[in-house]
Each structure stands twice: as structure tokens, then as C-alpha cells.
Design goal:
Elements (H helix, E strand, L loop, with lengths): L1 H19 L4 E11 L2 E12 L17 E2 L2 E7 L4 E2 L10 E3 L2 E4 L5 E2 L2 E5 L2 E6 L1 H4 L10 E3 L13 E8 L11 H17 L21 E5 L3 H4 E5 L16 E6 L3 E17 L5 E10 L11 E4 L4 E8 L4 E5 H8 L4
Amino acid sequence: MANEMFTIRNVLKSNRGQLLDRANVVATGIGYKVTNRKKTPTLGIVCSVTEKVALSQLSSRDRVPPMLNGIPTDVIQTGPIRALQSPTDRHRPAPGGVSIGHRNITAGTLGCLVKKGEQFFILSNNHVLANSNQAKVGDPILQPGPYDGGKFPDDHIADLEQFVPISIIGVPSDCSIASKIADILNAVAKFLGKDARLQAVKAQITDNLVDAAIARPRKPVSEYVKDEILEIGAIDGTAQGELDMAIKKFGRTTHFTTGTIEQVDVSVNVQYGEGKIARFTDQLMAGAMSQGGDSGSAVLDDNNRLVGLLFAGSDTTTIINRIENVFSALGITR
């Protein structure tokens, strides 16, 4: 299995870019091929699409080949994958799993407590605590989140401490428009006797690893937060997410849910509002165990070990940052 996985990872790495550029494909990963709605023992490259359509409706360029370098492929329908943020009670001290958010968002989920040095911090998503890059360090964090009635200053529980910026790419609907604008500006420059010339270029896509941020609880810390998760309890260390691993979470919207890691090495294009896409790599994919507002939930295995940070999904999928990537990016520990 290890040799097979190594080979598939290399093939996926060299092909994921061109796969994600195909119409409807929103994610790629490694998983078991499904035939007649049943999982088979065949390991391969799985492409998630917003909608399955007949091959006759796709151009040859947009069709996912049945094999890639000798590795079988599969196509599953997930719908669009969005950053999970949506519209409960005030908790003091607040455990993981409850509503929280930056004062300018709707609401997400308080994941869990982490440490940086000797200080405890609240862990959740950038788009929950830092308003998708729009916030400033020191901004107030409310519990519950604003959608659930949280107001400043009464529900001020913490202050934004640090976030990992999300590289957002705007995908132009018609590249010829940019070229025409450049031509017009060049004509004006020539008329004015300027030598500089403009050229329309396509922005380089920058991959993301995590949608993550931390906030510093107000003091005394024990009055504002506690180191456990609703209906799950205390976290017992960390673990690396693996294919077929049983997982669970408690989130603001769907509460306690369980699932299985169905794909690893996932690369996915996530919507952050109209015209805004962010590409994430090295993600974990599970089935339907979340909805809007569950963003920021801590994901654990059956032994209560922390394996990931939930941040996006669709009606049929859940996308999870690997916790080791989150810890590395923020310089935090358990």
C-alpha cells in the first residue's frame, strides 16, 4: 500500500494543476474508486466536480481521462465547495464547538484551545476570526458570533492575535477584455508620447495550506474559555489524518457529527464570495458532516486526538486542513 500510495501521490502532484483547470473540477485527491455507489478496493485519483454531466456535453479538454500515467481515476459530484460560514447561546467559559466570530462576520465555530509559549489561544479559521484577511490584529472577537446575537462590548471574548493570509485569486470571465483594456491604454500612452507599454497577463495561482487564525482570550482566561469540546471532552494529543480514518467534530450548526477521511492529498478550489477563489493543497476530504457555520471546528479521531481544522465543504463533502500544517503556520502547539 505504501509503495502504491507513493506512486499515486507523484502522479497526482504532476497532474493536479491541469485537472483543476478542467470545467466543473473543484478538487483532486487520492481515494478508493466507487462503482455502483459502492467503494471498491481500487485506489486512484478522485476528481470532485460541481455537477456530473454527460461526456457528450464536455469538450475533450474538459473530460477527466479514465487513467493517468497508469493510475485509475474516478469522478464524484460534490457541488460547489465554499468556505463554511453561516448564521447560539452565550457560554462563559466557552468550550470548543460554540458560535464565535469577528465582529464583522456572521458566525463560525470556536475550534479548540492551543498554546503559543505558555499562553492559551482560541483556534479557528481566518474567515471566522479575521474576516478573510480583512481584519486587523487586536480586533474584537465575539461569542456568540454576530449572527447569533453577539454584540460588542457585551460579548467580547477575545482579540485577534494572528492569522495566516489566504491567497485569493479572481478568475476573469473573459481574458480578451483585459487585452482590449491594455490596447486602449497603450494607444493613449502612445498619443501622449510615453514609451511604457501594458500587457494583459494571467495572475499566477498561489496555493494555500490552511485557513487558520488564533485569538487571545480576555483575562482571566478561565472565565472566558475552557479547554474542552462540547459533547467530546478533552483533546488527547494530535495525530496525522489518514485515508479511512474515523473522525468526529462538534460544530455550531450541525453539532456532533462523525465521518471518515475519504481522500487525502486533496487540492481544491474554494469559493470565498462571488468572483473570489482560493486554491488549497494537502487537504483532507470527508463526507457530509458539516454545513455553513461549522467552519473552525476541531476534527478529532476516535481517540480524541486532534487531526484537523474544518474550513469548507459542500452538500456532500467536508474539507479539512491538516492540523500539522495549521500548527506549523501559526507556530502553535497543544
